[in-house]
Every structure is written in structure tokens, then in C-alpha cells.
Amino acid sequence: MLRLPRFKLMHPKTAGEATTIAAELGPRAMFVAGGTDLFPKLKRRQFDIDTLIALDFLPREIEAGPAGCSVGAGVTLTAAARDTNLNTAFAAYAEAAGLVSSPPLRNAGTTGGNLCVDTRCNYYDMTEEWRKAAGYCMKKDGDICLVAPSSPRCWAVSSSDTAPAAIALDGIVSLAGPAGEREIPIEALYEDDGIKYLAKQPHEVVTRIRMPASAGVRSAYVKLRRRGSIDFPIAGAAVAIHVDGDVVTKCRIVLSAVASHPLRAPAAEAFLTGRRVDRSLFKEAAEIAAKPAKPLDNADMSHFWRKRMVRVVVEEALEKAMTRS
Questions:
Q1: Up-side HSE of residue 95: CA atoms within 13 Å toward CB?
Q2: What stretch of H or E contains 254?
Q3: 7: exposed, middle or buried (Cβ count in 10 Å: 0-12, 13-18, 19+)
Q4: What is the pLDDT of residues 60-90, one digit of tens each?
Q5: CA separation (Å) from 322 to 170, 216, 240, 273, 274?
Q6: Is residue 128 within 8 Å of 45, Cβ to Cβ?
Q7: What is the pTM of this model?
Q8: 116-140 pLDDT per residue, tens
Q9: Is 141 in contact with 68 (CB distance < 8 Å)?
Q10: Which whole-number Å values give the CA distances from 42 to 45, 191, 291, in the listed order?
């Protein structure tokens, strides 16, 4: 049986207090909200910490208005998946939230936590004993990437379901730090690096996600995984199509689980923009969208097959989005 290491659990009352504690303690402390991904990794000794800072104070409301929808970072994934306003105006995001892991974990996991979920790799997400026997990787205790030994960087993959959907919907994230709060586009939250995958400061806390209202937007998220529940994505696509009549005025296509960050497909977006909606174009757009995807042999199933399946999930997401009014 894997057991949690001993640690001190702190319960700050505000974001300012939490971020001040985190800045003072440095890398020996981590934030915890739902803990659905963090606790298993602590059991596998993937992090060396002595303090957890509980984020019980995070807002747990979903507020909708003419300007769009604001989702507190403490909102559970189950609540986000079931919210009427999100399902109506931001269907891809609600859909993605409802596809994370399994029902019990969605009841505990939070929207803020899923944005910040650690990158994954078959060589990294193993027990301490396994990793020691196989040889440590650069993401934890080693100095090489075991999936790409000649590479100077880590290629662990981004496996958040909600991040691609939020990016496709032009989402904005609020970050609280010791000096106050700031907002950045959710796309800017990520780095293309398996280790340093977040652009925010380690002591900053995600407090809120905001998605602006946009007339005529249709969105969808399609996830591919081995099982229909529990598993992380092995390929996924979030799309948001803005239409005026039957003409695409703007398009966002964001891929999941095929890079170390949620991967935009700008060439496919440009291909669809300005064209009349025609489902015969979706297959060609999906082919274009799949080109920047570079899955490696560090996740479930063959990376060659996952590469081929990217075009399938993109085409399915485009078709699903266009069936929504």
C-alpha cells in the first residue's frame, strides 16, 4: 500500500495569506484544493514537500451575466459540468469538465486544479521503486528524458481536459499573488515544457476563470481515452466556431494530450475562417489541425495511432459544435 508522506497542513483564510505563506516556504510547500491528482503523486513520491496549503477559501460560485461567465476556482468539476449557463453558452467547457476522470473524483476535483494539473508521462507517473529501478528521468531526480534521451528538455504531456476548452473560448484566468491579483489569457498560463509547464509564479493561486460572452459561438470538446471513465486523454480537441449567418468569422481549435501544453492549431483555424459552413471542409481542416501534433511514446496506446486519431477527434468536435444552436 502506498502511503502519503508526513506533512504540515495549513489553512489560510484568504488568497493573500496563502500566497504569502507559499512565497516564504518556497519549493517545500504546495497548494492543494481537491487533491485528486496531487495526493496520488505524493504517494508515489513525485514531489518532495513538507507543507500543504489548503485552498478552502477559493470561490465556489458560477456567475453568469451579459459579459459572460465567471467560474470560481473552487467550483467542483461536477458543478461546472451541470451548470445550465455553461452548458448553454460555453458547451465545450462544461463538456470537458464532465469528462475529467470519474464521477467521484469530479465531485472533489476543482476547476482551478484541473487548469494546473501536472504534466504526465509513463516514465514519470510510477512509484518511487519503479522509477529507481528503471532510472530516474529529468522531471524527477534524473538528468535525461527517457522518452527522448537525446533531447535537452522534458516531453511530459499536458493532460488537462478543461484547459483546451477554456483556451478555445478565449478564457481569462485570475491569479492572486502577494502583491495582489492579475488577469492573463488562459493560453498564456502554459509553457511548452514538461517540467516548467505553467507560466505563473509557483506562489500564485488561480482564483477565478472568466469566459467572455460572444454571440454566435458554437463549441464542443471531444476526448479519446482507453476507457470511458477514469483515464486521462490520449488525444482530444476543443473547438469554438463563431458564425455570422453561415460564414465562419472566427475559429479556435485546441488539442490536448499531444504536447507539453494545450496546442493551438492556427493553420486549421485560418483555413476555416471566412468560409461558408460546409461539413465537407471539416475533414480537410482536421487534417491540417493534426499536423502540429507530435505525440510521443510516453502515454497510453501507440503514439503512431494517437497521431492518426487527432484528425478524427478534431473532425468530430467540429461537427458536434456545428449541430448546436
A1: 24
A2: strand 247-256
A3: middle
A4: 999 999 999 999 999 999 999 999 999 999 9
A5: 18, 11, 9, 14, 15
A6: yes
A7: 0.97
A8: 999 999 999 999 999 999 999 999 9
A9: no
A10: 5, 23, 36
